[in-house]
Fold this protein.
Amino acid sequence: MESKELERQVVRAWRRHNDILLLLLRSVPAEGFVAVPTGSRGRDVARQFNHLNRVRLGWVHYHRTGARPKLPRGDKGPRPSRAELRAALTTSGKEVSAFMQECLRGEARPRMFGRDIIRWLAYLISHESHHRGQIMLALKQSGFRLPEKVAVQGLWGKWIFGK
């Protein structure tokens, strides 16, 4: 496979992942943003999404500068709104995509992760999928079941069938 095609596929995979996350964000009922998994003292649904944005921005900043960014934790204070989360995740998704493209063109390299962009991408998607599962569990345990069109076809079918 030629490198341009590999770059296109890798970036497209990240964008698909981000689109799926944004679909989930759009599908959470307004009352569901305060849901927390049963028995957990962890983040509510809104703060789970906020955490994903913070981690994305933190890693991209670290990869580019070698310094840890000073980003607000978001665990306290006002809960971010759906619109704020959508804007933040859209922007950070583009930041990740741009950094990956730089790496795939040989213009940059991630720090840590064996300096391997695919390994970092796999980590990032795995980390976000873990939190997506926590979000789904919190919603389900709080009585907010998402329609099958979102929960199955949207979150899985978009990977498998590409629609």
Observations:
- The radius of gyration is 16 Å.
- Helices lie at 3-27, 45-65, 82-104, 117-141, 148-160.
